[in-house]
Amino acid sequence: MFTIPNWLIVVAGIGQIFTAMIYPYIRHQVFDWYNDVKKLQPLNQEIAKTYGRYIQGLNFSFGLIAIFLYDDLQQNTRLAFALTALIAAYWTGKVATQIAYYPMYTIPKKWHFKMGSYFMNILFLLFATVFTGLVILKLKLFFA
Predict the structure, then answer these.
(1) Looking at CB atoms within 10 Å, which of 27, 46, 74, 107 has the fewest?
(2) What is the per-residue pLDDT for 104?
(3) What letter does residue 103 receive in the DSSP assignment?
(4) Helix residue spans in 39-77 (DSSP H)
(5) How many CB atoms lie within 10 A of CB 18?
């Protein structure tokens, strides 16, 4: 039977923490996000900033869970299934949204921004694949 190696879950966890740490840089340097947010009304500014913190916090938290609880995520329990399904849905949704709605051609043309966008997209696909794989493995065991 195929399994997701623990080391791959840990790598995905490290990557998720990396995305949380690099998130402010990307918003500021690549997307000039803070200047755009300043154009919003004060309440909407705070809502946008709060959602940004939620995203950063979720990425960091999912990373910690993957790094320190990789063995628990592999267990065939309802809680492990629910948590891996949540993480898989989060990253699969991120990838789908990015493909469908984000105009990636607006990324500044500097080489390191362009390479960074490819790297980040590869990371997002890795996260979606690892956690969706865990969910599929659990579904097979639950319904076998």
Answers:
(1) 46
(2) 67
(3) -
(4) 42-68, 70-74
(5) 16
Q: Are 73 and 134 in contact (CB under 8 A)?
A: yes
How far apart are alpha carbons 50 and 55 in whole angstroms? 9
Token pair listed for 130: 């690892």
pLDDT under 50 in the chain at which residues? Answer: none
d(CA 15, CA 2): 23
Within 13 Å and on the Cβ side, how many CA atoms surround 61?
Answer: 11
51 phi and psi angles, rounded to 5 deg = -65, -35
What pLDDT score does 134 carry? Answer: 96
Tokens of 100: 């469908």
For the chain, how far is it from start to end, CA to CA, in angstroms?
Answer: 13
Among candidates 63, 57, 58, 54, which has minimal Cα distance to 17?
A: 63
